[in-house]
Amino acid sequence: MALIVQKYGGSSVGTIERIENVARKVIASRDAGNQVVVVVSAMKGETDRLTELARAAAQTDHPRPRELDLLLSTGETVTITLLTMVLERLGASARCYTGAQVGIRTDSAFSKARIQEIDNRFIQGDLDAGRIVVVAGFQGVDERGSITTLGRGGSDTTAVALAAALSADECQIYTDVDGVYTTDPRVVPTARRLDRITFEEMLELASLGSKVLQIRAVEFAGKYHVPLRVLSSFEDGPGTLITMEGADMPQGSMEEPLIAGIAFNRDEAKLTVLGVPDTPGIAAGILGPIAAANIEVDMIVQNISNEGLTDFTFTVHKNDYDRAMDILRKQAESLGALEVFGNKSITKLSLVGVGMRSHAGVASRMFDTLAAEGINIQMISTSEIKISVVVDEKYLELGTRALHRAFELDDEEGNTVTVEGEG
Amino acid sequence: MALIVQKYGGSSVGTIERIENVARKVIASRDAGNQVVVVVSAMKGETDRLTELARAAAQTDHPRPRELDLLLSTGETVTITLLTMVLERLGASARCYTGAQVGIRTDSAFSKARIQEIDNRFIQGDLDAGRIVVVAGFQGVDERGSITTLGRGGSDTTAVALAAALSADECQIYTDVDGVYTTDPRVVPTARRLDRITFEEMLELASLGSKVLQIRAVEFAGKYHVPLRVLSSFEDGPGTLITMEGADMPQGSMEEPLIAGIAFNRDEAKLTVLGVPDTPGIAAGILGPIAAANIEVDMIVQNISNEGLTDFTFTVHKNDYDRAMDILRKQAESLGALEVFGNKSITKLSLVGVGMRSHAGVASRMFDTLAAEGINIQMISTSEIKISVVVDEKYLELGTRALHRAFELDDEEGNTVTVEGEG
């Protein structure tokens, strides 16, 4: 008998009818011989409603975090009771628990608490008694008994943490997409659902803007070796399994693919400091004040020194561009820079795949492909399993589609994906 | 410094604006030098909304009680967080607790749990630190950690129980009326607000249909000698103090009044079994099957035996009348009754007052007054501090007003009360 932890998000439990749909999926999994623990989020819209009430009460966008967390936690508590009632109505034996009741102990960092330990005795007892266990996602309790929340999307983390604590065979995250795709199907209609992907690849794809899963949940799953599967709440299908590299590869399976997917990010802007003296500490001199202003920097490129002067380029979120430019301009004189300029009309394209570790030539094939389309590369940055380039934002679709084809990611049967839902 | 427990019901916290009004009252009490603990209900309409969700999920009017209690408890949890946010915004230091967090331990009788003990350490610590403490009413936690509720209106009970546990100087119940009246001002416009009333009198008035306070809360307050005060959430005023008989009577106060108030109940119906053999066990033979059907019986009158036959009359809630009549008819033969009949067009009028204990003549003055108005008395029942009569329901207003005048309960200044609100 396998132990499965399933997680359903807010839109999957947004109405009583949808909760019934969830209950049927849960019961089907149990009927297939599994023990099932279900983690649910607040009904879609509920967290926003509660947040609005808090804003009205506190008359600020930042109500007191201890009270706000307690308030928001009621959203998931409502869902667990309703799902349990529906499960029982459909003939299943079920029991629900809040985060505090099931012993999800966190630190006291309200609104972004971290799970410290989980007491799995209750759940194991219920599972042994043949019950389906329903747990409120997103919430825990600190050592003083105050209710905490894990931050938006924290229900994924709850599910993975429970799966780890229970040594579950699989943690299934049900969403409004039916898996992880080679790239965004809205940009590349021939994008293909991946049957499996590694944690590292998923992290790179997620951090590059793929919103299927919380990064924290993926990190957590990787750390505790919890097999994670992304599936659709609304259609049947195998989804995408996220596993350790090479783990559980089926007998006779193909060689690991070179590239798992292509991510893009249109939210970045780049800034260049031209002609600064190439002396030790110059990078810190430029980026120190940026970091001090709490602006996150993504790519950093420094060109080779030419006559003792060097050029320095980095990217930030578009929202931070104006602040970053102000800081740079104020510093230009003390840095001895010739010029400071920037560009918000860029996009970042990234190839991600553990396969590129052992394959030469991925970078050159990438550059060739872009060149063949007449796309100029403005920046390049590489890591073990990722190559990112910055190009003019007008090339986002053209570049992504060309790379998708060049690395043979297109759906073999020529199917195209229709995208609906919340995006 | 006095320690005051205040309780505000659902309509008093029905909107953010009303919660602000509550916060100002709480702060005013603190500024007057009191330590204040506030107990609040769910925002008006919230419990109904949650109950509807449960019905839709469970597709029955009786969802599973453990889950229903957990669901309903979220209503009060929302209110405590919002009130605390408002208090802090208005400059007061405050902290809120759910029933479980503050250690309100109950038995496991979901939906009608009884409080077993309260751990007052948290609250006392906060009060000592100068904080206002906000506690969710209506809810507690059983020994297994399941959330329980005390039943509708249980927030009054929470407030009284907290007041007892903290040895509070007064428990103030804020409602949409400004106190306890000599009778319903909608029937008798000259009804007068009572400055004080005894627990016993309040119990008799409450159980007779006066809906100001939960009976359980009054019993609790009486048992633990907690002075209870009923006040208006919406206007200033001293309200009505409910105390032990004779306790704290002000120096030079008037003699205890003969009658505290007049209650009436139009929700009862009477049933009569005529001409049954007057043998031992006949009352049990008639009422046993009624009780077995879970029908509550209020007044019971058996006439004197006449030629070995007796008449037996009792009252039940109008909603139970048809069921009770069915049961009686089926039994009539085995009981040897001559006839079974009933009447739903009745009302019960009751005089209540601890003063009648030591005064003869209350009953005769009551009967004389009704006779003078041509009102026929169908049943009479008496207790130490109460005399009840059943009359035709058309005499409800006439009878109540005549008695109110005869027992000198009219407002001395001839003021009449305007009644608004929920009734």
TrEMBL record, chains A, B:
Residues the entry annotates as binding substrate: 47, 76
GO process terms (BP): homoserine biosynthetic process; lysine biosynthetic process via diaminopimelate; threonine biosynthetic process
Gene Ontology MF term list: aspartate kinase activity; ATP binding
Highest taxon in the source lineage: Bacteria
The reaction(s) this protein catalyses: L-aspartate + ATP = 4-phospho-L-aspartate + ADP
GO-annotated cellular components: cytosol
Family indicated by similarity: Belongs to the aspartokinase family.
SUPFAM superfamilies linked: ACT-like, Carbamate kinase-like
Residue sites binding ATP per the record: 7-10, 175-176, 181, 186, 211-212
Keyword Lipoprotein attached: no
Pfam families for this protein: AA_kinase, ACT, ACT_9
ACT domain residues: 271-345, 351-423
CDD domains listed in its UniProt record: AAK_AKii-LysC-BS, ACT_AK-LysC-DapG-like_2, ACT_AKii-LysC-BS-like_1
Record EC number: 2.7.2.4
UniProt pathway annotation: Amino-acid biosynthesis; L-lysine biosynthesis via DAP pathway; (S)-tetrahydrodipicolinate from L-aspartate: step 1/4; Amino-acid biosynthesis; L-threonine biosynthesis; L-threonine from L-aspartate: step 1/5; Amino-acid biosynthesis; L-methionine biosynthesis via de novo pathway; L-homoserine from L-aspartate: step 1/3
Keywords associated with the record: Amino-acid biosynthesis, ATP-binding, Kinase, Lysine biosynthesis, Nucleotide-binding, Transferase
Broad class of enzyme this protein falls into: transferase
Designated name of the protein: Aspartokinase
Family annotation (InterPro entries): AceGlu_kinase-like_sf, ACT-like_dom_sf, ACT_Aspartokinase, ACT_dom, AKii-LysC-BS, Asp/Glu/Uridylate_kinase, Asp_kin_monofn, Asp_kinase
